[in-house]
C-alpha cells in the first residue's frame, strides 16, 4: 500500500463514453466535458461525479476523451465501506489501458480486443491504432454470456473494424485455465495471453481520472496549499534569521574596527603632543642661542608655517638634503594647502606629497600624510 490511500471503481459501476470535442484548449475541454457528462445521464449536476482522460488529438482541432460518469451515491457507498479515507478514486479502465500500454499490447495499424479478467469481474476494451474506442465491464457469474453481449454491443458501434487479434490479460496470481479452451473456441483469430503483477504504487502511473468528489479534491488542494505556504514562511523565517545574524556580525566587526582606529588615533595624538612639546623646547633653545644652524632655522620656520588644522606626528631629517613632515588632518585639502605654504618657504626648493590616506577614527574621518621637502642649498 502506498503512503496515499486509493480506491478503484470497476468498469461495470460507471458510464464510459469515448467522445471527440472540437477543441484542444484545456480550459475549454473542461467546460465541454462537464456539459457532455450532464447529457449522458438523467441526473442533476449534484447527483453525479465526472472525470476524463485526454487521449490526444486524432483529428485536427479535436480532442479525444475517455469520459467517465458515476452516480455520487455509488462513490459515497464505496467510500463508506472503505477501511481508510481515500486520497484518490481510480477508474479501473484507465488502469487497464495504462497496463496495456506498459505491456506493449496495442499495435499500430491493428485493432486489438483486450480482455482483462479479475476474480469477480472482467472488462473488454477495443483499441484501434492504440486508441481505445470501446469498453464494457461485467461480473463473472455468466462470463461467456456477458462476453457475447459485449461483442454484440461492439458490432453495433459505428465505423467498427474487424478484430485483428485478441489479448487476454490477468494478474499472475489468478488462474484462468478453466476458461481458456472456451475462449479459444469462441474467437477464430489469434489469441495472446499476458500476466502481470499489480503495481502497489499506482501513483507512479500517469493517471488523469479521479472520481473523488470535487469538494474533497478542493479540500485536499487547500490543505496541500496550506502546507506549502507554511513551509514557505518557515524558509523565509530561516533566511531572515540568517540575514539578521549576518548583519549583527558585520555590525560587531564594524564596532571592533572603529574601536581599533580610535585607539590608534589616541596614540597618534599622544605622539603629536610629545612633538609639540619637543618643538617648544627647540624654540626655547633657539631663543637662548642666537647662532642656531640650518636645522634649527628649519624647525623654527616649520613651527611658524604649520596651519592650525595640521597636527604633526613626526619631523625627520635624512642627514643630507631632505626633511619629512608626517602628521594628520581632518581634510585632504588641508594637506595640499600645507604643501603650497611649504613651497613658498625660502628653505625648500621642492615639496612632494609621498602619501595622503583617508582613515576612520572613531566617528570622524582623518587624513594621514607624509610630505618630503628638499632643502634649498642657496637660500
Description:
- The protein is of the alpha+beta class and 379 residues long.
- The chain folds into two domains: 6-212, ATPase, nucleotide binding domain (Nucleotidyltransferase, domain 5); 253-375, Gyrase A, domain 2 (2-Layer Sandwich).
- Helix content is 42%, strand content 30%.
- A five-stranded mixed beta sheet has the order 8-7-6-9-10, with helices on both faces. The chain has a four-stranded antiparallel beta sheet with strand order 11-12-14-13.
- β13 (348-361) and β14 form a beta hairpin.
- α6 packs across α7 (294-305).
- It is rod-shaped, with a radius of gyration of 48 Å.
Layout of strands and helices, then pairs:
Elements: E1 6-9, E2 15-21, H1 26-40, E3 48-56, E4 63-71, H2 72-81, E5 88-91, H3 92-103, E6 111-117, E7 121-128, E8 131-139, H4 143-155, E9 165-171, H5 177-186, E10 191-196, H6 214-288, H7 294-305, E11 310-317, E12 322-329, H8 332-343, E13 348-361, E14 364-375
Helix pairs in contact: 6-7
